[in-house]
């Protein structure tokens, strides 16, 4: 399903506002009735007034309003699956989710900055297929190679240090796991975009990069953080409770290691870019992608999308038509049934 005009979804926020106004109006009327006189006496003076009907009218009105808004959004539903030919490359994003990525020397934090960079890169892609890997002391597959960018961004936002039980930063594990995402026999160009602060607590990252180069994988590294470094805040419910300490009880200062990331990229004739400026990163990635050969491949996707707005608009206007003839006084034949235990 696709939503053609998502901007109209914000109009749904008016529904709770209308409900609050209605409840306040009910409260105000009840208050004024008490000031006027005894409530039981007021009810006797207006025997045809229904307590249930105003609520029913409001419910119908809100349902009609919601239906019309959804109609304006214009949901589209694909009616068939078809195989389409696309031209692009396979890209795997390896995102460092170690605790050092919680440092806030880059706003709002290194990890959140990394997510922003990956999300913006995905937005700039065309027909490329993408996958996602998370890593710290070990690597974890988050999303296999796919052409569904919306799903990829959804998984991306859920990434956190809690995903990986083994802490530290093992760049070689990230490279090796990422290489398994690619089909060695495929002629499709292979690119790994590795985002990290470069603090590698393992050995062999350069060797892993050389192995990746043998299967034709190119690595672009993006450094996130500052060389001055920063502390690692430990939060509970968004509040900083303490800071990460080492075995000697000293507060840990984590720093960006650009040289290690440059060494990895150089081993595959890739490149390194500092992630401080989103604009510069996007320009660098764009130029890099333009110099990588695109390959034609097939993918299956939902196609032949058809608009469904007419059903929602029709239902909404039907409810508005019903609401016009729905009076707030008691309905005689329903009153006889006394379904709501209203006094006659």
Automatic annotation (TrEMBL):
PROSITE patterns named in the record: VWFA (PS50234)
Keywords tagged on the record: Cell membrane, Membrane, Transmembrane, Transmembrane helix
Domain (VWFA) ranges: 90-292
TM segment ranges: 7-28, 55-73, 309-327
UniProt cross-references to InterPro entries, sorted A to Z: Aerotolerance_reg_N, UPF0353/GerABKA_families, VWF_A, vWFA_dom_sf
Official protein name in the record: VWA domain-containing protein
Source organism per UniProt: Flavobacterium endoglycinae
Taxonomic classification: Bacteria, Pseudomonadati, Bacteroidota, Flavobacteriia, Flavobacteriales
